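Predict structure. Chain length: 243.
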Amino acid sequence: MSGRSLDYTAKAFGFIEELDRLASPQAIIDAMERSFAQFGFENFIMTGLPHPEQRIESLVLLKKWPLGWYERYTRNSFDRHDPVIRLCRQTVQPFEWSEARNDPETNPRGQEIMQGAADFGMRQGYCLPIHGLNGFEACLSMSGPDLDLTPQTKPAIHLMAMYAFERARLVLAPSPRPNPLTPREQETLRWAALGKSAADTGEILGVTERTITAHIGSVCAKLSAANKTHAVAKALQHRLIEI
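Prediction complete.
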């Protein structure tokens, strides 16, 4: 791991430690604003994805959006046509807004929405889809005029975003739970949190890569996590593992 990558990892864990001391939604918003600004983000929204009978404003957990854009977006129900929201429903992988391709024939309002966001300084963006095994869908979408998105920064941003989401949910609706993970699952996830691959962890613990992959799959199922990074964030948030 390069020194630069270690710097980003340190920033991510520093952010996590800071969030653990916060107990209000506004404090979390302020911390996110400071920390994500390092990567060029100026605005973000953390929200559930609405069903047809729901309005998105009823599902927003935290936001730092230009007021004029938020009012326009919700008034016009832009979430029904937003290319970013549409892609968010189709993938569990983080993506840049530019990857949310829009077909003007099938979604004529998509370009209007993206241009409207750009008019408010939200020209580039990065979206973290969050899918629970119980059907829950949400996202953390962040934007700015000039973003630092590289193979080195994206893993740190991903971990920070997932942890922020879990922290916000905990603060807004606390729900203590016993630790459902076995000691070996906890150990496996600790190494994953430190950036080790399944092959690396298997070598460290003296088991096969396939065994480690199975442990991670079990952890994701128990925690209703979409992927390994999401599982790490949830486990850290709920004190199921310690680093």
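Summary: The chain is about 50% helix and 10% strand.
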